[in-house]
Specification:
Strand order of the largest sheet: 1-2
Strand content: 5-15%
Largest sheet: 2 strands, antiparallel
Number of domains: 2
Order of helices and strands: EEHHHH
Radius of gyration: 20 Å
Structural class: mainly alpha
Shape: extended
Distance between the termini: 63 Å
């Protein structure tokens, strides 16, 4: 008789990993990674037959900026951070909301990555390929 794949959830964590840094809401990336490691360890301990695969679910609007060595530059901003309010207005001055929607097909929400990236650009956190800080588009 053929065995069928099974799914078992042995670890689920609603991570309360956001913290304030200089009045800005950021994710505690170290705490998140520790939670992932703890979860994988607990799953490995619970699976006597071994682990065939691991599923991960996450929200796709936040990002971690890395240096040239692949290390996090800082804890990433949380999508709930209010820093995108002005960036959203400025992006819409460059690309009208109707055109942005036509290009991306995504719902226009202030938490979208495009507004987060533009907020980073406005704050001088993004550099061009030559290493110069990008201040204006």
């Amino acid at each position: 008789m053929e065995s069928r794949p099974t799914s078992h959830s042995c670890y689920s964590s609603l991570l309360q990993c956001a913290h304030r840094h200089r009045r800005r809401l950021r994710w505690d990336i170290g705490r998140i990674l520790d939670g992932v490691k703890d979860g994988l360890r607990l799953c490995a301990e619970a699976a006597a037959e071994g682990i065939a695969s691991v599923g991960v679910d996450g929200w796709a609007v936040d990002y971690v900026r890395l240096n040239e060595n692949g290390d996090a530059i800082a804890d990433p901003f949380c999508y709930r951070n209010e820093r995108t309010r002005e960036a959203e207005k400025r992006v819409h001055q460059i690309i009208p909301p109707s055109r942005l929607y036509a290009l991306t097909g995504i719902q226009l929400l202030g938490l979208n990555t495009i507004y987060q990236l533009y907020a980073d650009k406005m704050a001088g956190r993004i550099r061009d390929q030559r290493g110069s800080t990008c201040r204006n588009m």
